[in-house]
Amino acid sequence: MNYEDILYAAVDGIATITINRPEVRNAIRPRTYEELTAAMHIAADDPTVGVVVLTGAGDKAFCSGGDIRDQQARVPEVGRKHMRRLFALSSVIRMMDKPVIAKVRGYCVGGGNEINLFCDMTIASEDAKFGQTGPRVGSVPIWGACQLLARYVGERKAREILYTCRLYTAQQALDMGLINDVVKAEDLDGAVDSLCQEILDKSPQSIRIAKLALNAGSDQEFYSSFFPNSELLASIYGNPENMEGITAFLEKRKPEYRKYRTSRA
Predict the structure, then answer these.
(1) Count of C-beta atoms within a 10 Å radius of residue 9
(2) Which positions are tagged coiled coil (predicted)?
(3) Torsions phi, psi of 158, nearest 5?
(4) Residues 66/110, Cβ–Cβ less than 8 Å
(5) Three-state DSSP string of 97-110
(6) Looking at the domain assignment, is residue 193 inside a domain?
(7) Which of 25, 31, 199, 209 has the greatest number of beta carbons closer than 10 A?
(8) Are 246 and 135 in contact (CB under 8 A)?
(9) Strand 51-56 relative to strand 14-19: parallel, antiparallel, unpaired?
(10) CA-CA distance, 147 to 141, in Å (whole number)?
């Protein structure tokens, strides 16, 4: 595949995959998902790679989620194809027998935070921001946040994050258990490399088994809920309430959802 949206490099046992759309805060469109999936497969199949680093280009964002412009034309049949695309990416991240480390600068929100959840570990710079955006833009984070977030931060906090769409600082994310470490921006590359070197010094077959064992419980929750919920989400794509969130975002205004809470008596 000729990459347009990402960069891929493998050096000295570390594969680095970079979402390369800084002009839109590394928002991901269909091609981005497909390129990320292809690159993850390359890293997974490369016997010289022991750890994968996933990051975003520039200093504004790791990933700001799905590209809202792409969602303007999303209807149920397009949404179902989109769900299969999501599943392919999350599956290769979780099923590869190598740790995937998220290196986060700036915004890590929406689908970007769900990608963060699929990674094994996360190190963030002090200026990072984390959160979900689904109900703000007429969607639902059923790709991973509804299944995995509570495992990291507890169910009460997960409900707060999902329902309110608040943004949280890197320190808040660390305190709630969402990420592993926070460092100064100028120290981020070094901190991630140091973690990679620690991993590369360990037995690859032991890490392989440990990752599969750690994922076993959450895999059951994720796979059993993703498919029915993806159909539910796809079924609302393009309806007025869904489009209100998308239109409001593009028009840079606050969405008007209160009108959808009306008496039907």
Answers:
(1) 11
(2) none
(3) -60, -40
(4) yes
(5) CCCEEEEECCEEEC
(6) no
(7) 25
(8) no
(9) parallel
(10) 9
Full domain range(s) for residue 210: 1-186+199-265
Residue 73 pLDDT exceeds 80: no
3-state secondary structure of 130: strand
Joined together, the tokens standing for residue 27 give 């928002």
Listed residue (114, 103, 120, 123) closest to 210, CA to CA: 120
Work out the pLDDT band at 263, boundaries 50, 70, 90. low
88, 37 contact by CB (below 8 A): yes
Place of tokens 């915004």: 107
Q: Tokens 């007429």 — which residue?
A: 138
Contact call for residues 122 and 105 (beta carbons, < 8 A): no
Residue 98 identity = K
Paired tokens of 161: 């994050």
Contact 126, 152 (CB under 8 A): no
pLDDT in tens, 34-52: 999 999 999 999 999 999 9
Q: Which residues make beta-bridge pairs with 147?
A: none
**Is residue 62 in some structural domain?**
yes
Give the chain's domain count.
1
Q: In this predicted model, what pLDDT tens digit does every residue of 196-239 receive, in sequence order?
A: 999 999 999 999 999 999 999 898 888 889 989 999 999 999 99
User: Residue 74: pLDDT above 90?
Assistant: no
CATH number at residue 100: 3.90.226.10
CA distance 229 to 226: 5
Overall pTM > 0.70: yes
Domain assignment present for residue 165? The answer is yes
Structure tokens at 226: 């993703």
CA end-to-end span of the chain: 55
CB 61 within 8 A of CB 104: no
